[in-house]
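Feature request disguised as a bug report, sorry. It would help if multi-protein outputs had a clear separator. Right now it looks like this:
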Amino acid sequence: SQITTLINHKDKPKRSDKTLQAIQRVGQAVNLAVGRFVTVGEAIANENHELKEEMSVACIEARRAGETIAQLTDVANLDHPESDSHITIFTDKTGVVKAARLLLSSVTKVLVLADRIVIKQIITSRNKVLATMEQLEKVSSFQEFVQIFSQFGNEMVEFAHLTGDRQNDLKDEKKKARMAASRAVLEKCTMMLLTASKTCLRHPDCESARINKDGVFHRMRLALEQVIEIVTDSRPNGENEMAPISIYSGIKEFKNKVEGLRENLYFLSKENLSTMLEVILEHTEDFTDSAYTSHEHREHILELSKQAKMELEQLVSVWMQAQNQKTKDLMEDLEVAILKTCQCMNELKREVHSAATSLAADLLKYHTDHMVLKALKITGVEGNLEAVAEYTCKLSEQKEQLVEMCRLLRHVSGTEPLEITCIHAEDTFQVTGPQIISAAETLALHPSSKIAKENLEVFCEAWESQLSDMSMLLREINDVFEGRRGEKRVYLSLPRPGKHNANLKVLKPVKLDTEEQAKIAKLGLELHLLTSDVDSETEKWEDQENEIVQHGQGMSSMAYSMYLFTRGEGLLKTTQDLFHQAEIFATEGTKLASALHAFSDQVHDDDKPVLLLEAEKLISTCKQLQITAKASVQGKSATFTKVDACILKTRNVMTLLCQLLPLCCKLLRKNKAGNGCLKPAPPWREDRIRTGTNAHSPERRAETFGIKSLENHVTNMTFLESK
């Protein structure tokens, strides 16, 4: 930016002192910035001898170019800038251009070399992890295992930090999502590797224990390989990555081509358009052939597929005529054909979305009790091999249902990052199912083994965690469909120092550590479930623009961001972010209470006293939350207590909201049914507070490894040596 300013400055006959000083300041700023940049580059060079020479040369070139620019812009104190005794930007504009080019090329070279070093660090870290994994596979004693796993844990922490930073730096959303998926696999598998290896060591002759352990090692190696593919932007054996095409992306591309006919009748062939539609309709067979698609959805999809073919035939007919004779009537007919074709594709898109999401909602609801997993744990401890075999068959059926659900959701996910998340979920169910079965068989063969029992627990937790993640994924997919850009609805109402809160000068923003996150996890989960309940209630309202619904959705969004904070995720990074969010949440709750009072003025029903009572409770609870959020605290323990209190009071507000929304909805419906529970009233207030959503920014989120819990496991494993 500074260099562009210099090169684009206009040569004027008269130059004021102000202009000369400005030019000199820019030149000095460039030189100082280059100096700081080069200092970092030289430090990197000294730590990496294999690239030291190249990096040093690039740094020298950059420094020289910066100094040249500073000399050429040293014009502020010259009475005669054009004097031959001193070459300046005014006498040698070409010199500035050359110096700028040299500077930009050398700076680019330094950046590229630094990037190569980062990639090398990640590869080296991966190689260390792989080497230690090989040692872990071969150990035969607990004592040796404890020592090597301790080293492995440290190496995984290092790898987590390096790949986390890289994930943050990635610009490609697809790569970012793939990296997040691979790192999530590594995080969960590290704990599985610990318990699976312990089980194998305790029961060395058990075939199911060996199969269980081998599966974990294999999956970790695949995840490590994928990280390196993303980092180096390469595929093994030079293969090209074939991205599966979803129905959503196919329809989007098809519609773009069809609508492009308005501008140009000749830019593609009718065969091209027909082929595109054929591919889309082939993918709809994933729905029509699925045993889990309802009869109604199947019939609608087949009907719309047939209609799409007919609409395209009509479009092609008019299009061919318009190419030969471009009359006004034909162009109007073409416009109608384009609109009808696009409308049909939109209806098809809506139908497959409904089929996939309704199936997912039903399956997730059906499997929330985890009855099969509970039964496997009980029968395993009992040593009942026959019952374990029966429940493993049921788990296999459940796995097939969930895998099919993921495949169908991928078609309607709407964005590439969400498609990748669906593929990752499918892989997780495919792999974790058989691993739970082998862990359960091991426990059934050794029912008194505490290690085998712990191992089964870990795999069951991974399954339950993935089911929970599917609920969030379904919510995000629905957000895309409803135009909320496919990102979790989180408020970006973060504090700015000196503006929002006087406490900011006193409080040091901190993050929750792993232990604190574990303590608050149950409360956070309760908050998460309440946000789902509130969202479910708001969706029942016919008028989504209703003021009560708007406030309810906004509060649910903010509560969801606070839940993410308890997991160490989302946009609220520090405790101070959370406290500020709690204040905003409480304010939104007070506004909702005002809207409820306005609504109650129109109510004639017996429920009016109940409504007013709940509204007063809401005001009181929100005031308590506001006082807690604004209270000044110091010290780690006091800060955590305040965090806990804020989440608790937010949960209480959300509980009230879950009671208020159905009550208000019922009163509105009574009115529509003609029961006259509402007075004729002036129009709803127009000064509604519109709640915003954050822009789509994948991550999608740079998740952190849950490695500290592994370190705790390693610390507590010394007892194994005595056994």
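(second protein starts here, but nothing in the output says so)
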Amino acid sequence: FWVVPAVEVKIEVVIPEKERSKEEMSPNGKASPLIYKVNGTARHYHLEEHPIASNPYHNPKDVVEASVCHVKDLENGQMREVDLGCGKALLIKESGEFHAVGHKCPHYGAPLVKGVLSKGRVRCPWHGACFNISTGDIEDFPGLDSLPRFQVKIEKEKVYIRASKQALQTQRRTKMMAKCISLTNYNLSSTNVLIIGAGAAGLVCAETLRQEGFSDRIVMCTMDRHLPYDRPKLSKSMDSHPEQIALRPKEFFCTYDIEVLTEMQVAAVDVKSKIAVFKDGFKMEYNKLLIATGNTPKTLSCKGKEMENVFNIRTPEDANRVVKLATSKNVVIVGASFLGMEVAAYLAERAHSVSLVELEHVPFKKFFGERVGRAVMKMFENNRVKFYMQTEVSELREQEGKLKEVVLKSGKVLRADVCVVGVGAVPATGFLKQSGINIDSKGFIVVNKMMQTNIPGVFAAGDAVIFPLALRNNKKVNVPHWQMAHMHGRIAALNMLAHGTEISTVPYLWTAMFGKSIRYAGHGEGFDDVVIQGDLDELKFVAFYTKSDEVVAVASMNYDPIVSKVAEVLVAGRTIRKRDVE
């Protein structure tokens, strides 16, 4: 908490213009229904307030005031974390104006003061989420919530802060959403929007529809037995229970009338009749459809692949079971993929031994390049992980029905009580083969910049699609990452409502191993050189991936916020030349 005795700055919580109308509702808190035109048809919408976004002035005891600094203490383009006694705010000065928002990224709590400020938004230094500094609204992902926004007042060159204690403590704000107003008389087997898949893309699509005022029926269906959860944690934090990694609590889905059908698999889609047929024979009519089924892990093709204690990590139960079985035992991981490497790192201090089998000679070679891959490999070897490279599994051997040994094509035999397979995945789109929806030779659903398929009213998002990436001259690519799935879901929802919004985000991902993170932005596929600054041996470096003369991606370790800085340059459409980083 930084104070100049003579001068002070004042901040107070404000509700964005868009949301203020809710505060001017009738006494019972209900707004009159809005009329919202979708494709020329008038529909009724009803707005409801989420408790987190309630008006901070209803309860004067909830308001705190404190002083922070002189107007001249912050230069344009500067950010400062300020302490208000019962919580902190982020004070920002841009283009001569002060703004104040929550200081922590709602995703995993990163300090935004260490992020990147650019053209009216702040980008998280850890995972790249972006927030509008005027409204606090989330503009790029990952994460679901926005920042609380506080009003900055300046009097006589002094600055005072006034803020809601609740907003300071929660450091997050759920955007205003509509509720369904037609649930009393709906037909069980018919919905306006059907979302197949309940990952990040499906959930963000449903939430965006409600945020935009859509108040008709939304049904999400998933083969999973759980409500949407934070899937990246399955390999990064393997003993997490489903409720610990849930993206939203059960009450959230009830409050906003987002129906989730769990353990329900769609077997076929009839796009002419607009009907989805489930595996158990149940049929559901839809008006708009989002396919966000993600991918299916590849399995081994060798003898013994079906035996007990051989896992693809697909669910929280899989991850929990692996941790339990691996504790003080011998683990073999097949595939130095992101999943394989993260699992190896997580189990290294819990298992008796961890062995990793990989076809390439260096992990992550295609993605991070050989030099970064070698540095990562060395870090793993220093943490007792043993690599068996340039070979694959020829057989899994059992004893009394349980896994006992993994035999490699090189002839080496590894002791194994549990085996985790991370050899890639294929898009989960087999059920669409006869549908008429355009699917490429690898099984990916082909969409345009608005996430639309070739069939009107049918959208697709997430790991199962290829889409035009603005960053790479609209080349159609597959980007199977958490952040991108969020953005796909948002773009699909906006275009279901005929907004005509095109995707222009820069891919951003991270991996976490042994308490260290590699952050990555851009799309480095086909890079022909890597320019490295810093020290690979010390694991403090930034790597620029170039194609011809242009930087197409960047990765870093212990070098924040360089990846977020590069992401902001790329998203602005500016080119970074190789000579600029050499």
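Even a blank line would do. Unrelated, but nice: Residues 482-496 form the longest helix (15 residues).
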